[in-house]
Amino acid sequence: MPGVDFQVLRAEVSMEHVLSQLRFQPTGRSGNQWHGPCPVHGSSSPGSRSFSVNLDTDRYYCHKCHSHGNALELWAAVHKLGMYEAALDLCRALGRNVPWINRW
Hints:
Helices cover 34% and strands 17% of the residues. It has helices at 6-12, 15-21, 71-79, 83-94, and strands at 28-30, 33-36, 51-54, 59-62, 68-70.
């Protein structure tokens, strides 16, 4: 199985790319800090603010389910995939080429 260059993928795919694919609708914004319902555990309240994402650092945290991480980790958590599968799936969803490691 060829390797994915996760460093390149994380540099090229922003949190905004992932949030757009997840159709995330923030219920509140404060600069580049967005709040809203958590896409990981599926907040039932549309006005929920348990999910917080910082677009400057490309990091997220849910104050209810405690899921946290970067954009790729968010994609993996929402779709319940391992990191390798999440990388392939996210690239497909975004119509991007997978950044394969070519050192072999």
